[in-house]
């Protein structure tokens, strides 16, 4: 604050113009009081030029001067370029009311501008805090996303393990069923060959055996989806069937022996043929009863297997539906998170561009302030040099006058000597004063140099801070790019894993179809073999000696 009222500064125009130049170069003064200084319209013009250059003055009091219409217009025109002045007093200057209103309007505009700048600064601070919070939130979201991805990977690995275990179980069940089928086929061939030697009535038994074969093949197909609990039951049933087949084979061997004895003793023992026929009829009746019992057992087992297969199919359908729903929900969640991250990335880029523009603006302001400080220092040095030159000129004039006085008063030696001593004392004092002024000038110049160096250091520190912020922003950009790359890689890996899983599921389905085709082919081959065996048995029975003798009797 500088108060210079009632000093008649406007009387000396050159001095006032120098004062205005210093005001234009100054960037520290906030309040200036120039009331009652006889400032004319020319001084007001100089003030207007100074105000165009000044960027720190906020209050200017010019009341009770002689500004007039021209001075008021000059001050009004300078307010278009000056945006810092908030108060300008022009009362008692014969300035028209319209110019006063315009000045007041400009002052209000500057006040509003300063308020807006403060609000903008506050908003920038708030936005910087929000940017930091958003960065923290983004880091947390990224960590959560990585955790969810790890969990999904673990779930997928678990599902793979479960699927592989199930496939192994099914493969083991298929192998067991194949072995059971092979054993049953061998046993059935043995029984069919043994029964073919009995009589033509064995055809019915052959048909029943073929039906049992078909039932057993259907049972084998259904055994594909059974669990390990039903394996023990199948083993028990195989034991029972083996026992029945062993009993039947023993009986068939007995019958073979009897037939051989009958063929050897047919001429001597024709009477015993009737008894053998009766025995055969009894054995065939027993075989029929056993076949009926076997059919009933097979029907009961068919019903059980149907129920178990239906339960297994329903469970499989539920598991497949659950897995598809889980995969769809996970894909949707991943897509939503990717979209959110992209929106956050766009917002961060916008904020980074805004921060860049603000940094550039601050850098430009700092450079302007540095230039202003340099200009101000130069002007002050020039003013001080001019002031010292004037003092030296005055001192030389005084010295000349003293020498003239000494020449005039040579007659009065005593008085002249006394006056000379006084003059020498004065000159010594003046020289000391000059030395002191020179020392003051040197000290002030050193202070200026130190201040300029301090300002340079502060500006260099600000520039270093700006560069550090710039590097930090570049690092943030690189981190954002790396995060985007990681997200893309994770999404591509997830998609590839899903595609691999779908391919594995399709391969498993194709394997199941191949197994079903093999089972159907094996069924057809077994049916063909059964028909061939039946035809062979029929041919053998027709060509046997028993078949040739029976119609004769």
From TrEMBL:
Which regions form coiled coils? 167-215, 245-525
Q: Which GO terms describe its cellular component?
A: centrosome; plasma membrane
* Major location category of this protein: cytoplasm
Q: Which InterPro entries match?
A: Centro_Cilium_Assembly (IPR052116), Leu-rich_rpt (IPR001611), LRR_dom_sf (IPR032675)
**Record's Pfam families?**
LRR_6 (PF13516)
* Localization: Cytoplasm, Cytoskeleton, Microtubule organizing center, Centrosome
User: Which keywords are on file for this protein?
Assistant: Coiled coil, Cytoplasm, Cytoskeleton
Instruction: Name it.
Output: LRC45 protein
Biological classification of the source: Eukaryota, Metazoa, Chordata, Craniata, Vertebrata
């Amino acid at each position: 604050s500088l108060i210079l009222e009632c000093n008649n500064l406007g009387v000396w125009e050159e001095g006032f113009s120098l004062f205005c130049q210093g005001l234009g170069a100054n960037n520290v003064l906030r309040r200036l009081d120039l009331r009652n200084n006889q400032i004319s319209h020319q001084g007001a013009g100089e003030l207007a030029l100074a105000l165009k250059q000044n960027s720190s003055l906020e209050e200017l009091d010019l009341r009770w001067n002689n500004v007039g219409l021209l001075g008021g217009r000059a001050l009004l025109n300078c307010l278009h370029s000056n945006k810092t002045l908030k108060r300008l007093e022009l009362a008692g200057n014969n300035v028209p009311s319209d110019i006063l209103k315009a000045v007041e309007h400009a002052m209000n505009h500057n006040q509003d501008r300063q308020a807006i700048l403060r609000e903008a600064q506050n908003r920038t601070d708030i936005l910087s805090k929000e940017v930091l919070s958003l960065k923290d939130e983004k880091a947390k979201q990224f960590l959560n996303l990585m955790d969810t991805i790890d969990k999904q990977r673990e779930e997928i690995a678990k599902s793979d393990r479960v699927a592989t275990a199930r496939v192994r179980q099914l493969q083991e069940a298929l192998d067991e069923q194949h072995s059971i089928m092979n054993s049953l086929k061998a046993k059935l061939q043995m029984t069919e060959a043994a029964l073919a030697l009995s009589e033509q009535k064995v055809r019915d038994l052959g048909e029943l055996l073929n039906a049992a074969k078909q039932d057993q093949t259907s049972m084998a197909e259904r055994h594909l989806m059974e669990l390990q609990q039903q394996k023990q039951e199948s083993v028990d049933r195989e034991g029972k069937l083996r026992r029945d087949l062993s009993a039947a084979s023993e009986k068939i061997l007995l019958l073979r022996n009897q037939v051989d004895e009958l063929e050897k003793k047919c001429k001597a023992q024709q009477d015993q043929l009737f008894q053998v026929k009766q025995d055969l009829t009894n054995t065939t009746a027993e075989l029929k009863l056993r076949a009926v019992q076997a059919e009933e057992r097979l029907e009961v087992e068919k019903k059980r297997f149907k129920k178990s297969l239906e339960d297994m199919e329903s469970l499989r359908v539920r598991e497949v539906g659950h897995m598809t729903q889980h995969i769809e929900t996970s894909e949707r969640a991943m897509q939503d998170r990717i979209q959110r991250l992209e929106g956050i990335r766009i917002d961060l880029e916008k904020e980074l561009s805004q921060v860049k523009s603000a940094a550039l603006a601050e850098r430009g302001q700092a450079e302007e302030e540095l230039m202003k400080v340099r200009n101000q220092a130069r002007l002050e040095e020039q003013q001080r040099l001019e002031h010292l030159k004037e003092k030296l000129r005055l001192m030389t004039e005084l010295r000349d006058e003293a020498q003239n006085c000494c020449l005039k008063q040579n007659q009065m030696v005593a008085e002249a000597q006394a006056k000379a001593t006084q003059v020498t004392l004065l000159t010594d004092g003046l020289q000391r004063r000059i030395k002191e002024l020179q020392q003051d000038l040197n000290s002030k110049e050193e202070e200026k140099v130190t201040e300029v160096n301090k300002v340079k250091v502060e500006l260099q520190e600000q520039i270093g801070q700006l560069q550090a912020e710039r590097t930090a922003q570049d690092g943030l950009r690189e981190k954002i790019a790396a995060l985007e790359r990681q997200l893309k890689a994770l999404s591509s890996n997830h998609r590839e894993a899903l595609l691999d899983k779908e391919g594995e599921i399709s391969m498993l389905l194709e394997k199941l179809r191949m197994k079903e085709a093999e089972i159907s082919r094996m069924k057809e081959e077994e049916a063909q073999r059964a028909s061939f065996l039946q035809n062979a048995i029929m041919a053998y029975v027709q060509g046997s000696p028993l078949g040739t003798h029976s119609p004769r009797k």
